[in-house]
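Reply to dn_fold:

You asked what the input looked like. This is it:
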Amino acid sequence: MPSPLSHSVYPPAATKRDSIRHHAEPILTVRHVPWRHDLSIITAAGEIDTDSVRLLQRALWQDLPAGLVLDLSRVTFFGSAGLRAVEGAVSRACAERRRIGIVSATRAVLRPLRIFGIDTHVGVYPILADALREVPLSPPPPVAIPGV
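and this is what came back:
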């Protein structure tokens, strides 16, 4: 039974044989973990695409503390829908003067973040421990991000 902080999306079954395998493997799992009073971690694992992005959006648009670490280190596919969700979270953090950091060392996530310039507006960390150490100390982002 999943915890109230964890949610998953399962793919639609293509065939009867595939349905057994698919129901054992969710496309995306998102967990929100309150780390401290001023810092939360949202962890996503799996594929972020148009079918699964709502889970990530729901987690990113709840009431969040002053600092947020978005852990995408276990994301295997990061489509344009996921990129838009992250852009929205970064814009919201800027508007609300909150700190945000992204964790990922995978090309699937880093390449889109670099291509669209998100990595220039938010800290991107290779491991979660680095983000948990740095994000609470970082200054809040500027009020507006040009082009985001």
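The mean pLDDT is 83.
Hope that clears it up.
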